[in-house]
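**Backbone description:**
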Amino acid sequence: MNGYVRENARSRIKVMVKRILNKHGYPPDRQEEAVKTVLMRVEMLCPDWTGEER
C-alpha cells in the first residue's frame, strides 16, 4: 500500500475513533493517547497496512 493511501486510512481511523470516544463520554484530554493506542494496534493486527511483517 502506498504512503498516501496509508495516511488517508490513518486519518479516517483517527476521525472514527474520536467520534466514538466523544459519543461515549471519553475525556477529551485523554483522546490523543487513546487514538495512538488504536492506531498502534491496527498496525500490529494488519501488517499489510504498514508494509511490515509480524
About this structure: Residues 3-50 form one domain. The two ends are 16 Å apart (CA to CA).
